[in-house]
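Q: Sequence in, structure out?
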Amino acid sequence: MKRMNMTPAEYGEYAKRHSPGSPLGRDLIRAFLMGGAICTLGQGLLQAWGSCLSQQDAATATSITLVFLGALLTALGLYDRLAKLGAAGTLVPITGFANAVAAPALEFKSEGLVTGTASKIFTIAGPVIVYGILAGTAYGLVLVLFSLV
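A: Exactly. Output:
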């Protein structure tokens, strides 16, 4: 095997020349359409739940339903197909969060409940939860401080 001696700059240029281009425009359109489809589904669920529940309970039921659907599609291996089709559009809605929790749980279940599923379930979603709590706390403190003024 021939070894190439390159500087980091030369390697960067070499990699840039030999890497395929990113279809940014296509990915943006797909992400927009997939994210919009998921949000449209959420709005439809909200309307459906709203016909038999109060508005607040309908919103809660909609969130629960979307999380369930995201986890179910992940378990069935269909969420990855949606992600390939819809690019980043599947990451942002609540279904993406469900996928981020369910995928590691399924991946590591063969290692057991404690050392596999329980320890790996929040590998991806953990930072989202931590920073969400921190942001919510900071927001609450700002509201309290401004309400005292």
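Residues 28-121 form one domain.
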